[in-house]
């Protein structure tokens, strides 16, 4: 791939560590274990969060088994490869550690500060930040040369892209490992500049912001969705916002508005929307099937127009 250093420089990954056990982290754990077939460790602040992550992963493995995508033995092998704990010392033998914690610079710096003294000197660190500066996330590391941005998309199992981000400090071994890992996960990787929103969220923030803006201006929600159809994309703006999460979408808006105030809306109303996931109807699998009858009213109240 363009910008990828020689793959001979890549470090062999024999155990993966994931920091966090939320939905994104759990999706990563399942993907890593399925595709790389190596032990995967997940941790979180307390055991109940870890257990919730493990339950999600086991449930997804059950579904794959029920669909006939995995036989019983393969499913059991995957289950056995995933380990959840609150004990961070277990990162000691991980070669590739990716964080999937709250999208805030201080939180990301903090979790890396906690594990850097534990991991091997040549272990690679990756951040799944969606719009923060990777260089800033690595600013407090003793070895920032081992940090790369490794940005997945929702749903992690199916979206084919990973944005890989290099900082001025990132060494070729880390970058090369990231590209080889991405390929092992069956994804296409692109190298992007370490600029707010990288490429995809920069484009998406425009779509989300303009869709919300059209709503405030009085265009009904379903009309905004309908108007998007000719573009032929798999999801319409508000469906996509619901998929990534209303709060995450609002957070991305904020990051972009702070970074480029002249180009993105600082949209307080977006946060009002973020409190309103009840505007969508979902099927049992949690996918959006439509809008509640009173979606328009609820949204109108939220945006105050
Ligand atoms: N988890 C795991 N697998 C899922 C899934 C999920 N949440 N949602 C769908 N899938 C799988 C289904 O199981 C199915 O797999 P199968 O063919 O093996 O049975 C396959 O995806 C297709 O699903 P469906 O047929 O049910 O549904 P669609 O054909 O409508 O596709 C979609 C669903 C893949 C989600 C499609 O609508 C799509 O591509 N949407 C766009 C998503 C997108 O743009 N994501 C990027 C968001 S931005 C982001 O994440 C960045 C962040 O930083 C904010």
TrEMBL record:
Residues 197-286 form the 3-hydroxyacyl-CoA dehydrogenase C-terminal domain. Residues 15-194 form the 3-hydroxyacyl-CoA dehydrogenase NAD binding domain. In the central section; belongs to the 3-hydroxyacyl-CoA dehydrogenase family. This is 3-hydroxyacyl-CoA dehydrogenase NAD-binding domain-containing protein. It comes from Microbacterium candidum.
């Amino acid at each position: 791939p363009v910008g990828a250093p020689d793959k001979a420089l890549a470090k062999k990954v024999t155990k993966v560590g994931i920091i966090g056990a939320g939905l994104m982290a759990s999706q990563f754990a399942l993907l890593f274990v399925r595709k790389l077939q190596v032990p995967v460790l997940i941790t979180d602040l307390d055991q109940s969060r870890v257990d919730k992550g493990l339950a999600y992963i086991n449930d997804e493995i059950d579904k794959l088994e029920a669909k006939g995508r995995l036989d019983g033995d393969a499913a059991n092998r995957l289950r056995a490869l995933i380990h959840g704990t609150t004990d961070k010392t277990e990162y000691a033998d991980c070669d590739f550690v990716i964080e999937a914690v709250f999208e805030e610079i201080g939180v990301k710096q903090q979790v890396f500060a906690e594990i850097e003294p534990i991991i091997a000197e040549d272990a690679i660190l990756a951040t799944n930040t969606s719009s923060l500066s990777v260089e800033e996330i690595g600013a407090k590391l003793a070895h920032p040369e081992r940090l790369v941005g490794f940005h997945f998309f929702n749903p992690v199992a199916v979206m084919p892209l990973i944005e890989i981000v290099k900082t001025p400090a990132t060494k070729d071994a880390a970058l090369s490992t990231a590209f080889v890992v991405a390929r092992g996960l069956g994804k296409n990787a692109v190298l992007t500049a370490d600029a707010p929103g990288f490429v995809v969220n920069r484009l998406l923030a425009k779509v989300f912001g303009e869709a919300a803006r059209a709503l405030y201006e009085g265009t009904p929600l379903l009309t905004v969705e309908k108007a998007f159809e000719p573009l032929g994309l798999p999801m319409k703006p508000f469906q996509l916002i619901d998929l990534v999460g209303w709060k995450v979408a609002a957070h991305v808006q904020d990051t972009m508005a702070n970074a480029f105030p002249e180009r993105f809306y600082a949209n307080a109303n977006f946060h009002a929307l973020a409190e309103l996931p009840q505007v969508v109807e979902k099927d049992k699998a949690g996918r959006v099937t439509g809008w509640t009858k009173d979606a328009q009213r609820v949204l109108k109240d939220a945006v105050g127009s």
